[in-house]
Amino acid sequence: MSSQTEQTTSTFHLVEQLFQNHLTKLRQSDAIPDGHPISKNPADDGLRLRVKDVVGIDLPPAPITSVLVDAYLQANHWYLALFHEQSFRARLAPIIRTGRISASEKPFLMLILIVLMIGARFVCPESIGPHDALFDSALYSSQLLEAVEKHLFIALHDVTLESVSCALLMSITYLLERKTKLAFIMTGIGVRVAQAIGLQDETTWEPLDHIELQVRRRVWWSIYMADMYTAQAYGKPSVFAGSRFQVFEPDDLDDTLIACPGMGSFEVREDGTFSRVTIFSYNRYKSPLYSIMSLNTQRMRLQQINSVYARLLEWEKTLPRELRLDSFSSTENEVHQHGALRIFALQAITLQLTYDYNHLLLFRPFLLNKKHLSIQLHPHPAEAQNSISITVRDQLSVSAIRMSKVYDWRTILVLASRTTCAAQVCFQLFTAGVVLAMLALSDLSSPQLVEYKQALARLINILPLIGGGTPLSNQSVEILTDAMHIISSQEVKALISNATNDFRTDRSSPAVAGASRVQATQANMQSSTLDSASQSEVMDDTDMWEDLALFPDDHEVDIAGSESFYQSLALLF
Fold this sequence. Notes:
By secondary structure, this protein is mainly alpha-helical. It contains 23 helices and 8 strands.
């Protein structure tokens, strides 16, 4: 898969072009930006270094290490595959056995530490007990975090594929550790390391065996999706959006061949062939979803927004049964007992939430002016005359309310709370709550007001379940509860105002009293803290541009700005 835009060229790249037909070997160039790193001395790699001397901590015995790796795989590998399991274990075994590494294995050692740290965070104590009843997984996880933070630049000094994975996993760790700024920074580091090793263009890669090739593709698509999600969550520009890349989707390896029991769907692969849906199909479906939304970082006209909207709708139609949440309605209670069923159920619920979340992102700018909420959407212009009319408000309502209804899938949500996806799911549900609050306040007379409040209540109950009492879930619940109080307060003010107006109109002439009451009720109930402008039932595209004092034919309008949902939420308070 590739995205073609203008490609930049470094000065050193021109140097290579200049001398390519004249010199077989260039001079040392590691001090020049984009130059080649200095050649390593093979003798240095022959030295075996003690792990504790390198990072200040020993690795646990082999049985405990194996349990922690298993816990990591259950918590993250289905969600973000960053290596090949069998190859990882094969490289890990001699390091555990000898307690030593070569100099070139330092980045891999850092990856081991981070994998074990995440595994220790999510491991069940019952799994550790038979091997060492005194092993404290929580303490060991915090010790590993301290060691990683002290020696992280080991993974960055010699930029490798493991360096990208380390940065990405540390970003996830910091999200779980309430260090959101560091999470943002670590994703950026991973993105830049990926660029430094040319991960975005596989035509520049050296010859690789099949497994190495697929792992590099896995890591590329993982950091690409992380960059897109980070841009969405933080309201910042994506690094990769609009950039040129050429990396094909990864094929299945023997660690991702598991299929869903009782189902046998096929997916259409990038080359047009059909293959059975496996646990890695999730990533192959998720990455196009982020590619579609990468367009949302550009300055967009309404026509472009409709185009992205249409692509989202088409994407949803392509999902196989294995990745649709409704497919697990009759087997939800079995997901605990069956490992493969558990993975597909987790993938289905996170995909559905991400799909609806992307609709919220796409139409987020319209929330800031309630007149724009009634703009009609035409994802398929040719079918507009025969299709049911849907407005921005309709789509925001449908997506946010459906996200709240994952409350009905509490068994799967409990499983998700024990994985690394919990932070992303928490934030997506929090976003749905913000949208619901803003929709409610945009029109207190809406027939959907009760439905909005009920959906908010569901989200407030869901968040502790998925967040497991983490700071992210606790803070989200507190903020959404405050939003509920604001909605109630505004309703009370509107009712009191209406009662006052009713009293005044009752004392006026009977002939005009009824009409006056209706007008007063409509005027007061439609007031909100977000916008005091009047709202027409349906507003066409031209009205929107005129309201902005701009015209679509002559100006580009940043209708999909990079403002974060947290900034939008500030308007509520």
